[in-house]
Amino acid sequence: MTWFYGESLLVGSSEREFRIFDVSYSPEGDPMGKFIVNFYAFKPRDYTNTINLGQIKTRDKTEVVRLIEKFMWAEPDPSYNLKIGYTKKGKIKKL
């Protein structure tokens, strides 16, 4: 059996909420590796000026799904230290 793998797994964005997430797996191909989920905010219509809101590392795939759903559809859990974002007018706000 041939296995194919890569570090970058999934990237998604919400233009409505001005949020981006990026899921990777590191070290690449290592069964003992971890999923790394990076969270970003961007100014409306400007993906070039993103702000890193935080990073979570986990080995649990279910946790990755839960983190992405919570980040994209609801307010992030304060314990994840995702503290800033943008309003629809491009002003920085607390999440």
How would you portray this structure in words?
The structure is a single chain. This protein has 95 residues and is mostly beta strands. 14% of the residues lie in helices and 46% in strands. It has one helix at 61-73, and strands at 8-14, 19-26, 34-43, 46-58, 84-86, 92-94. The strands form two sheets. It has a four-stranded antiparallel β-sheet, with helices on one face. The chain is globular. The protein starts with 7 loop residues before the first strand and ends with a strand. The model has no long low-confidence stretch (mean pLDDT 76).
Strand order of the largest sheet: 1-2-3-4
Structural class: mainly beta
How many domain regions?
A: 1
Query: Which percent band covers the strand fraction?
Result: over 45%
Helix content: 10-25%
Overall body shape = globular
Beta strands, count: 6
Summed over residues and divided by their number, the pLDDT gives a mean of 76
Radius of gyration, in angstroms, nearest whole number: 14 Å
For the report, how would you describe the main beta sheet? 4 strands, antiparallel
Reading the helices and strands in chain order gives: EEEEHEE
The termini sit apart by: 46 Å
Key terms:
95 residues; mainly beta; four-stranded antiparallel beta sheet; two-stranded antiparallel ribbon; 1 helix; 6 strands; 14% helix
Structure in a nutshell:
By secondary structure, this protein is mainly β. The chain has one helix at residues 61-73; strands spanning 8-14, 19-26, 34-43, 46-58, 84-86, 92-94. Helix content is 14%, strand content 46%.
